[in-house]
């Protein structure tokens, strides 16, 4: 589901040179279009997470993927910039439950020691989706045009929605109480869930996640365009090079996470380990981002961005595991994750827009990379100093 999410989202970036030419778009207009899927998406992360926990991941998963796939088809069949813009907004509506559903499933299937790797694998699927979406959309756009490429990329979503509905079954977590006659505590209200906004650790995790998301959405939206702009590559080649970058980032992040988890066994709590890992990996990525504009070949950019994204993804996986560790009770991780995404994706949403204006005013991408690097350093500091206390959710009965 996560891979399809990012494949469908990234197809627009790979097709943007033709779309921009067809609709006569300025760089700032391109930035707005690239970010359109995030406008309503960020507002629905938390509500969709609450709905998924209430009605189950089965129905929410199938409905959301089918809906966003239909939105893609509508955008391809429309004949105006406004129609394409609306279709991208609707795509964001469908994509909103993806990460809360993933966080809920991971929490129920894993132990604390396993979660950093599983969250990293989950996050790495973003890069796999980016690679597939960028490569397929770039190649098909080059041969057949962007509309057919968009329709073809939408088809797997309908298949996934059907298979998920047929095969998946929700697993309810048993809540152990004092006697057999006692009922499980009622779900916390929305206000009780929102109360974690006042928790210092939650704020620290959100700031770290936001800095990582800014970097991620910058590369998701602009990397193929950057390759085309700097090296004069056509869409197919730029899309292929970008796909190599995303695949490298996925492999690097998983290898890093597995290695760090193995080496950190027996050295203190997983909470402390996740905190340090997030901070260190973000600092390394910030340094890599600063030197990417100095690369003089497309392959050097592929290596540099792949490493930078790989470190960010592994750090983000540790950051999400840290939220799971600190949340009490952890079974509400879907709602907590959805609430965090509301803020982290708000920051990610502005990355394509800010980059568009920077490129329009300066004619280069250097300042855009500097902004991303600085934010990663802020995220590293936030993770290290502001994630040290539990994040408690009061249930309606008054217990934690």
TrEMBL record:
Domain of life per record: Bacteria
Membrane topology, record value: Multi-pass membrane protein
Locations listed in the record: Membrane
Pfam families registered for this protein in UniProt: MFS_1
Domain Major facilitator superfamily (MFS) profile positions: 1-391
Transmembrane segments: 30-52, 59-79, 85-106, 118-140, 146-166, 202-223, 243-264, 276-292, 298-315, 336-359, 365-386
Keyword line: Membrane, Transmembrane, Transmembrane helix
PANTHER family: FI19708P1-RELATED, SOLUTE CARRIER FAMILY 17
Protein name: MFS transporter
Organism for this UniProt entry: Novacetimonas hansenii (Komagataeibacter hansenii)
Phylogenetic placement of the source organism: Bacteria, Pseudomonadati, Pseudomonadota, Alphaproteobacteria, Acetobacterales
């Amino acid at each position: 589901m996560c891979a399809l999410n990012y494949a469908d989202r990234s197809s627009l970036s790979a097709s943007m040179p033709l779309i921009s030419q067809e609709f006569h778009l300025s760089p700032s207009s391109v930035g707005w279009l690239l970010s359109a899927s995030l406008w309503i998406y960020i507002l629905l992360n938390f509500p969709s997470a609450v709905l998924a926990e209430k009605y189950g991941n089965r129905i929410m998963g199938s409905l959301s993927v089918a809906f966003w796939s239909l939105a893609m088809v509508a955008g391809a069949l429309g004949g105006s910039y406004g129609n394409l813009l609306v279709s991208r907004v609707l795509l964001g509506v469908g994509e909103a439950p993806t990460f809360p559903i993933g966080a809920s499933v991971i929490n129920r299937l894993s132990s604390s020691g396993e979660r950093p790797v599983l969250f990293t694998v989950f996050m790495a699927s973003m890069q796999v989706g980016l690679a597939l979406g960028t490569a397929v959309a770039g190649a098909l756009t080059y041969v057949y045009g962007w509309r057919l490429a968009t329709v073809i990329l939408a088809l797997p979503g309908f298949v996934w929605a059907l298979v998920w509905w047929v095969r998946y079954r929700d697993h309810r977590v048993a809540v152990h109480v004092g006697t057999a006659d006692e009922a499980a505590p009622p779900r916390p209200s929305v206000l009780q869930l929102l109360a974690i906004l006042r928790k210092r650790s939650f704020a620290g995790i959100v700031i770290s996640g936001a800095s990582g998301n800014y970097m991620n959405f910058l590369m998701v939206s602009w990397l193929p365009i950057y390759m085309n702009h700097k090296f004069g590559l056509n869409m197919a080649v730029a899309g292929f090079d970008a796909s190599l970058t995303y695949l490298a980032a996925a492999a690097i992040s998983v290898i890093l996470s597995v290695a760090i988890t193995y080496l950190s066994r027996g050295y203190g709590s997983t909470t402390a380990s996740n905190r340090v890992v997030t901070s260190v990996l973000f600092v390394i990525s910030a340094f890599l981002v600063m030197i990417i504009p100095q690369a003089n070949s497309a392959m050097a950019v592929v290596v540099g961005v792949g490493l930078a994204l790989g470190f960010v993804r592994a750090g983000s996986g540790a950051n999400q595991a840290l939220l799971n560790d600190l949340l009490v009770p952890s079974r509400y991780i879907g709602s907590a994750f959805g609430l965090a995404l509301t803020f982290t994706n708000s920051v990610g949403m502005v990355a394509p827009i800010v980059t568009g204006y920077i490129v329009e005013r300066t004619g280069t991408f250097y300042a855009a990379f500097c902004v991303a690097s600085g934010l990663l350093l802020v995220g590293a500091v936030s993770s290290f100093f502001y994630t040290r206390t539990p994040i408690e959710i009061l249930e309606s009965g008054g217990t934690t």
